[in-house]
Amino acid sequence: MGLRVVLPCLFVGLLSLSILQWENNFIKLFYYIQTKHGDIYDCVDFYKQPAFDHPLLKNHNFHPQPTSPPRRVSPEKEVPKPDYKHVKIGLEGGGCPMGTVPIRRTTKDDLIRAKLYSEMHASKINPLTDEEPGKHVSYNFFAVARTFENIDYDGVGAMLSVWNLPVQAPQYTLGRVKIKNGAESLEAGWTVNPVLYGGDNRTRMYIYTNAGQAHFSRYGEKPYGITLSIYQDTINLNWYLKYDDNRTVIGWWPSRIFTNLGSTATGAEWGGEVFSPPNVPSPGMGSGHRIKLDTNYDAFFAQANIVVNNTIIKPRKDLKLFTDSFNFDITNKGDVGGEPGYLILYGGVSGAIGN
Asked: How far apart are CA 77 and CA 87, in angstroms?
């Protein structure tokens, strides 16, 4: 997966929790939020968030809200979509005060783990190809559905079922949507990654930073899901991350930090990925079971869509489906009603070993 903090994502702040603390006989007013799992998020002034330390963001003109959100088209037909429970993403107490953004407090150990993780995956060298399946120096395995048309893509989105699988460091497992152009890409999804989080095996939402995740799907039961989309504003050319069915903007990437993605994207993906070191059997992917073509049992992307010419549409039915291990599989069931998009099911069992 690689360490996803190379490019900054600027966050849009929400609500509040205040703490009064005595310091040197004076009352100091500051804001932070501690989750029940022990993570601490500081409420940082919007203009002082660490992303602005990036040299390409000096004197940046801020566009926290898109100026040209993509249009929706009416569905061609109504097909029942998967029945699932919505995952609510947020912090206790309502979040941070207006004008601030939540930034997870980083310890020295966090930085050491992040550096080691970054070095471990800096050589995610060999591209995933049909000609060389499974031959990745970093021992990553994939099951993905990809676009292949030679057109410009303005975005990608889907409703993702969220799972929690047993993983031992330095392994990880994840499911994500991805937009890319050459070596540059943006991803958003869920992950279990104990290396980055001090050994915890909780499921977390990831983009370029992470937030806590409280619910995950259980095999054979109604799944939990999150709706995520990444798309480019066709006027200011910034990339935006949206969450939930109301398409709430929770962050954006200024176009100036990219080379290829600064203009457009050339492909989109939906799928899963796992990592395990040499000679160590991999963790499972998705639900951790072989797919059964049933959304109560399989990890899935519902209403998988793309944005072309600033319009949310279905991709071509014949997406390129790729896996690089017999342990994992992916399939596209096609239309799944309500809004444009397909139902893509993926996952597999643990035990894959890289070549």
From this structure: 27
pLDDT at 23: 33
With tokens 């099911």, the residue in question is 345
Range in 29-43, 152-166, 212-226 with the lowest mean pLDDT: 29-43
Nearest CA to 295 among 308, 286, 306, 307? 286
Of 121, 76, 93, nearest in space to 17 by CA: 93
**Domain ranges in the chain?**
10-348
Query: What sign for the dihedral angle of Cα 151, 188, 122, 350?
Result: negative
First vs last Cα of the chain: how many Å apart?
18
What residues contact residue 43 under an 8 Å CB cut-off, 6+ apart? 13, 16, 17, 31, 32, 33, 96, 97, 100, 101, 102, 103
Name the one residue in this structure whose structure tokens are 């929706």: 72
SS (H, E, C) the chain: CCCCCCCCCEECCCCCCCEEEEECCEEEEECEEECCCCCEEEEEEHHHCHHHHCHHHCCCCCCCCCCCCCEECCCCCCCCCCCCEECCCCCHHHCCCCCEEEEECCCHHHHHHHHHHHHHHCCCCCCCCCCCCCCCCCCEEEEEEECCCCCCECEEEEEEECCCCCCCCCCEEEEEEEEEECCEEEEEEEEECCCCCCCCCCCEEECCCEEECCCCCCCCCCCEEEEEEEEECCCCCCEEEEECCCCEEEEEECHHHCCCCCCCECEEEEEEEEECCCCCCCCCECCCCCCCCCCCCCEEEEEEEEEECCEEECCCCCCEEEECCCCEEEEEEEECCCCCCEEEEEEECCCCCCC
Give the pLDDT confidence of 64-101 residue by residue, as tens digits.
677 777 877 665 555 566 777 777 777 767 778 888 88
Specify the pTM.
0.73
Dihedral (CA of 114, 31, 8, 128) sign: positive
Residue type, 292: K
Exposed/middle/buried for residue 65 (C-beta within 10 Å: 0-12, 13-18, 19+): exposed
